[in-house]
Design a protein that fits this description.
The protein has 22 helices and twelve strands. The protein is an alpha/beta fold. The strands form two sheets. Strands 1, 2, 3, 4, 5, 6 and 7 form a seven-stranded mixed β-sheet that branches. The chain is elongated, with a radius of gyration of 53 Å.
């Protein structure tokens, strides 16, 4: 049985497992369907009952809000509150009507209809409420202020006709009681504090008593009419008191009574719903108990079955898949495991394991191939750069001697060929760096116009020899003097594109056109420049069928062009990769026989102006002022000869160490300012020697510069990690040597 199961595919195993679970599930479902149907009916009834309870609570809440608005209106008389009262009342009518219409239970339906009648009676009082409020408000806001103003003006006029101090004091006393009685009247009507109503009566009685008993006969005739004003005030005040009572009676008796009756009906409805809920709950508990008993019985079978299936699948499938996944992760990380779990299985996991084993073998071969390639490139670079250093170095030194015009042309040819070979070597190394992701784009300030002039000058001789024109043209916005970008990589792309254009153009022109558009990036406050470079030629053009492969490494439009025009087919591939690293793409537009246009765009920021060092033209004159002691550590006699002659022409005499061990001897014996250190040497290599020297001399005390044919980034990193200050790659360039010496002389 076990062997039979192991031969089954994972799909069949899963189907069997889920089939068992499905069978048990169907059996269980049929068994308890009847019970669940009963539960559904109970829950449906319970839901309806709950809905009734919920709606009753909502209606009670709406009525409470309506009462609150009624009280608020009775205090403020606000029109907006009155409108809101009407709106809430209408909503309440609609809500109760809907419930009465949709109710299936007779008791609920009848109670809802009674509630609807009560709430309608409640709303019928709204207009009466507003009318009574307006009457009360009319007295408070108009009648009382008007009589108050009449009395005040009367007293003011009388006081103008009184001359005796006694009469003036009496009028002043009357005026005080008059003001106080009006204030107390308003206070009572707004707060209903009974004490204020009594004080109103007392104040008016005092005014009458003063007029009838205390004023002089001369004043009495003039002030007696004021008693009529006081009486009129009392009539208005007590009329307001009566209307206020009627208003409050409407609120506190009529409306409150309707609300009480409404809430009583609501309470009956809530009690009825609660009783129903209790009956339904009891029925639900009985049905649930019966259902749970059935579920417990089936669970006793279901859980062990599911547990068994889970254990089996976890052990035989999930764990195996996890092991295979872990193996793939290890392989991707470079951990070439020898044992692939599950390779002996006959199901899909076995197939995955066999695929992992095939992947492992392929990965081992790929890693071995990559290692061989890296070692080959490193050895090729070193072996070619060493003789190249001798050739170009000697050519440079020989050109400084007295030679004939014919000899100078020969030297220029040798130099040009050597530089071409060096360019090919650099292209291959750049391709290797690009493939391994080791090219880093730098952001430094550079002078745009100087870069264009340097590129133009570089091709002056070759275009003159071919009899074609090299044009430089700029259109668009004015470009600033200095920009921020990787000038080395920008120049490398332009030189590649222009070199190709010149190579394939025998007549006409090659044009370097730059177009600038100034803009401010979104969310920034500084200018940027969209800079488009176009290299346009009138050359042979590129066939349409070859254009798709043009940017692939080692590919040219036509293999015959390699023999006719030369080149490795790497330039465009490397240039395309560099453009992509700078967030751009090289775009091509070409027609066979009509020429080509290669273009790319860069977005660059403006940089602050730089202070550039003046190129040193006379090495002896500029460097002879600062004599320094130099040690050259080199095992190749040709390289020794080239370096020695170059430095001698600059006015320096040097010591020679042929390996790292000799370098340690010389640095311990003599004081040096600068050491040019080769990397690969017999006895002791340059890295080991540098580490030993650094145990005694710091970087500030002794400047060590690598001078090596090992030109990979890893070689540079190794030199700096060993403690070197600088790095020069062979073949050597005299200007680069001068730049290193300048650093040392400036530091000293």
């Amino acid at each position: 049985m076990k062997k039979y199961i192991e031969k089954l595919t994972i799909t069949k195993k899963i189907a069997i497992g889920f089939g068992l679970i499905f069978f048990l599930f169907i059996f269980n479902s049929l068994f308890i369907t009847k019970k669940l149907t009963g539960l559904k009916e109970v829950f449906s009834s319970y839901q309806k009952n709950s809905n009734v309870t919920t709606e009753v609570l909502k209606i009670e809440k709406s009525l409470s809000e309506l009462q609150r608005l009624t009280l608020a209106y009775s205090n403020t008389g606000s029109r907006s509150i009155f409108r809101k009262m009407n709106n809430n009342y209408q909503d309440l009518i609609i809500s109760i009507s809907n419930q009465a219409t949709s109710a299936e239970d007779k008791f609920i339906k009848k109670t809802m209809e009674d509630m609807l009648e009560v709430i309608k009676r409640y709303g019928a009082n709204f207009e009466d409420l507003r009318s009574r409020y307006n009457l009360k408000n009319e007295i408070i806001n108009n009648s009382l202020p008007e009589i108050n103003n009449t009395g005040r003006l009367f007293l003011e006029n009388i006081s103008k006709e009184v001359w005796s101090n006694r009469d003036r004091k009496l009028i002043q006393k009357i005026r005080g009681y008059w003001v106080e009685s009006n204030l107390n009247a308003l206070y009572f009507l707004t707060t209903l504090k009974n004490r204020k109503r009594v004080e109103v009566r007392e104040d008016t009685e005092r005014i009458k008593s003063i007029i009838t008993k205390e004023v002089t006969s001369k004043l009495k005739k003039g002030i007696t009419p004021f008693i009529n004003i006081v009486e009129r005030f009392n009539e208005i005040f007590y009329d307001a008191v009566q209307k206020n009572r009627l208003f409050l009676s409407l609120i506190n008796v009529v409306l409150a009574g309707e609300a009480f009756e409404f809430l009583s009906l609501s309470s009956d409805l809530s009690k009825y719903a609660l009783d129903n809920s209790l009956l339904l709950t009891k029925k639900n508990q009985e049905t649930t108990k019966e259902t749970l008993d059935v579920l417990k019985s089936t669970t006793l079978v279901f859980i062990p079955l599911v547990f068994f299936i889970f254990i089996y699948f976890n052990k035989n499938i999930s764990s195996a898949i996890s092991a295979i996944s872990s193996t793939f992760r290890d392989l991707l990380k470079g951990k070439l495991v020898t044992l692939i779990p599950g390779a002996d299985r006959s199901d899909e996991i076995g197939q995955l394991a066999q695929a992992a084993d095939a992947f492992r073998v392929a990965k081992e071969k790929a890693d071995a191939s990559t290692k061989i390639k890296s070692e080959f490139l490193a050895n090729m670079s070193h072996e070619i750069r060493t003789p190249m250093n001798g050739i170009l170095g000697m050519v440079t030194l020989l050109k400084d001697t007295e030679v004939t015009k014919e000899q100078e042309d020969m030297l220029n040819t040798i130099s040009s060929c050597g530089k071409s070979l060096s360019t090919i070597l650099n292209d291959i190394l750049d391709l290797s760096k690009a493939e391994s992701g080791m090219i880093i784009i730098e952001e430094t300030a550079f002078h745009f116009e100087n870069m264009i002039k340097e590129i133009q000058f570089l091709f002056t001789t070759v275009v003159r020899e071919k009899g074609i024109e090299l044009r430089v043209n700029h259109v668009g916005d004015t470009i600033p003097d200095y920009l921020v970008g990787d000038i080395t990589r920008i120049k490398q792309i332009l030189i590649n594109l222009i070199s190709n254009a010149i190579k394939f153009t025998d007549e006409g022109y090659v044009e370097l056109r730059t177009t600038t558009q100034e803009y401010i990036p979104e969310g920034k406050d500084h200018k940027r420049y969209r800079l488009k470079f176009e290299v346009i030629d009138t050359g042979i053009g590129i066939p349409l069928e070859s254009q798709d492969q043009l940017f692939e490494a080692f590919v040219q439009a036509d293999t015959s062009t390699t023999r006719e025009f030369g080149g490795t087919g790497l330039g465009l591939s490397i240039s395309s990769g560099l453009a992509q690293l700078m967030s751009s793409n090289i775009v091509m537009d070409s027609k066979e026989g009509e020429g080509s246009v290669f273009s790319f765009e860069l977005h660059l920021d403006e940089a602050a102006a730089m202070i550039t060092e003046k190129r040193i033209k006379d090495y002896k004159k500029s460097l002879s002022k600062n004599k320094i002691n130099i040690l050259l550590v080199e095992d190749n006699m040709i390289n020794i000869k080239v370096a020695k002659l170059m430095l001698k022409k600059m006015g320096f005499s040097i010591d020679i160490a042929k390996d790292g061990k000799e370098a340690l001897f010389y640095t311990n014996k003599n004081k040096y300012d600068l050491v040019f250190m080769d990397m690969q040497m017999p006895v002791m290599d340059g890295l080991t020697a540098t580490r030993e020297i650094r145990k005694k001399f710091s970087k500030e005390e002794l400047y060590i510069c690598a001078m090596t044919a090992n030109a990979f980034q890893s070689d540079r990193d190794a030199c700096f990690q060993a403690g070197m200050n600088d790095f020069l790659a062979k073949p050597l360039n005299r200007d680069e040597i001068v730049a290193v010496i300048e650093k040392v002389t400036n530091a000293s």
